[in-house]
Amino acid sequence: GAVVSQHPSWVICKSGTSVKIECRSLDFQATTMFWYRQFPKQSLMLMATSNEGSKATYEQGVEKDKFLINHASLTLSTLTVTSAHPEDSSFYICSARSNRGHATGELFFGEGSRLTVL
Amino acid sequence: KQEVTQIPAALSVPEGENLVLNCSFTDSAIYNLQWFRQDPGKGLTSLLLIQSSQREQTSGRLNASLDKSSGRSTLYIAASQPGDSATYLCAVPLYNFNKFYFGSGTKLNVKP
Fold first, then answer.
1. Rounded Cα–Cα distance for residues A93 and A114 (Å)
2. pLDDT tens digits, one per residue of A60-97
3. Is the CB of A46 less than 8 angstroms away from the CB of B32?
4. B43/A112 Cβ within 8 A
5. Environment class of residue B55 by beta-carbon count within 10 Å: exposed (0-12), middle (13-18) or buried (19+)?
6. A22 touches chain B (CB under 8 A)
């Protein structure tokens, strides 16, 4: 299947600093990428939908100034957690929708990024 | 609004058993349905994608079926193994693929 790479897989930072997470589709172009947050033993919570070349669409309750999303190319989207606080500690996962061939509409996920804010 | 439900929430079986996981959705006008597995602390791995025109898809010991009219999909796992232990999720897309609706998952434990 298609490959989506997410980096870093884990990061520890001090409160008040900003952290950037990258999500890359390695073998297909992704006009749409999604960012999720997952709390322990809970299901995925969609944070925002990222479309290449346009502003991200944020879900209700997600602060767009705190979670900056950039989708500057068809293979890369980034999530920046600005001025991180301990309550932002979580597991963040990206996904990308494939547009190619028979897999049209198939969703592929990155490996996830574990953020711990001290 | 589309709602996706998975039953049961958790399942524990002895190794070697065949098992069925269920996924139901409220709006039958779907384009496709996708099954994933998630291991603890990991992202989701795509298992099977069924297009709306298909009734089933198979990959190894996995077989997924789709009945759009009744709003149901099942994931059949044959001869379960401890390595199959994970959380299994199903998802359906919004018509424009700008959103995907996920079930809350079935946590499977296969005991050696």
1. 9
2. 999 999 999 999 888 999 999 999 999 999 999 999 98
3. no
4. yes
5. exposed
6. no
